[in-house]
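[Structure tokenization] protein backbone as discrete codes

[Encoding] learned vocabulary of local backbone shapes

[Begin record] amino acids and matching fold tokens:

___
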Amino acid sequence: MTGQNPDFTLIKAARIIDGNGGPAIERGAVLIEDNSIRQIGAEETVTPPEGASVKEITYETQSILPGLIDSHVHLIGIGDGRAGDELTTLPDEVLTLQAARNARAHLYSGVTTVRDCGAKNRTTLELRRAVEMGITVAPRLVLAGRPIAIIGGHLSYFGINATGTIECRAAARQLIKEGVDFIKITASGGSTRTSVRGRPSFNVDELTAIVDEAHKFGVHAAAHCTDSQSIVNALDAGIDTVIHGRYVEPDGTLKYRPEITERLVENNVFVNPTLHQARERIWQLERKSKSELLTQDEQDTIDNFYDGWDNTVEFWSRLKGEGVRLVAGSDASWMYYNLGNSCFQDEITAHVDIGMTPMEAIVSATSDAARSCWIEKEVGSLEPDKKADLLVVDGNPIENIRDLTKVTDVFLNGEKIDRGNLI
């Protein structure tokens, strides 16, 4: 972080994109007092109080927008391809250090808030303590702590294994006692080897017990769902966010289910589709193929991806077109997907690839992402009295979404981040 700011900081730029989806403010300005936004508007309308101590920063060709919100990360991930089954064998101390490293990398790339969707033991909670003590820097942390799983279910090695409604309620209460911000439920199988991919895990009464406890204590619940039935079960339980959310049948086929879409829309449920995760691995393999021969398994991975990509685009385009609220979340650093280095911007770009306008994609990673995390009163858009989390990029991402990768500066709580600081 930089040193103490004067009473006010006045930041001017070529344009301001407030994150709410309206037109950009050309030649705009943001006035910051302490850690909050006080005024925003056209440059000539934003003025500090008379006699105030003001620091001025002008970005002649850049755009200012809200700091990005990655609504799905795993901060303890290594991103080197190891499965979670191996990741969990590392000591908690190592994983906490890795979480700090990942958090800093994501912050430096323009992500000022992350929602961590499951970590081993208290690793991310200890990271938050270190941030509060000033030991390290990180984006705002929205933490699930340990995910709730069935015995042998997806991420069961990280979290609380619960069976039956009594244990499910107890698990939710324990996590809330530990200070989590939301409850993450693995409502279906996943990459965990002992789980059953594409099949639901918890029964509806168990899911309902968890969600009820979350809501009772004023926090939201998000469910990992990789098949149609787990989505239906989560909806029956009153879930707030569905993660992944593909309509996969028991035989593994993708089948559009309009009745599920209708319920997602009617219940105002957010869906975090993690669009770029698989594509990131394909891009890595394609880069590798330019210098060395791929294995047959690697080539098959590429071929299988492209065989299904058009169906994937069509599926998500239809959900988006029918009113499902899609929010951007990367799922990094899981498997081969690393945090930082503009990886989240690739996720936002994938939202454009399924038919969003650049502005809609920005909203999916700012104000809508904040709503899905239940933090929209604090961040997600540039408005008076919200926290001064800002991303400054070169160019105009409304015209070219890839300009989000051209990070000039990042502000967290009104202070410019020293992105060259590796400590």
